[in-house]
Amino acid sequence: MSDRPEAIFPANRHALYQAHGYSAAIRSGDLVFVSGQVGSRADGTPEPDFRKQVALAFENLRAVLTAAGCSMADIVDVTTFHTDPEAQFGEIMAVKAEVFPQAPYPNWTAVGVTWLAGFDFEIKVIARQPAAA
What we know:
Layout: E1 6-8, H1 15-20, E2 25-28, E3 31-38, H2 50-67, E4 75-82, H3 85-99, E5 107-112, E6 121-128
Parallel strand pairs: 4-5
Antiparallel strand pairs: 1-2, 2-3, 3-6, 4-6
Helix pairs in contact: 2-3
């Protein structure tokens, strides 16, 4: 592993990275800091159905983790952002239960916000790169 931070992008890099000028993730040592992932389609537009938007955000997250050589099991810290947490909680928890079906679960912080650039859910994580076999 390099001592310098390394930018990581998934194989099918979506338009938001280019349009807004940010990396999907940065590897620093054995930690992978993933930028907030939203339920964006390949062209960067939001998925209009909320539950599908949340599921797509997790799919986009999985693609970034895969590009970094990580999996969902390597996540140690999660922060999610919600435009209407009270109304959205049930749908988010249903998708979360599919993604993380059993313990140990990553630690998680949920934050209510008023704006997510046209999206209603965003997830950012820190993962630990698995040791080379």
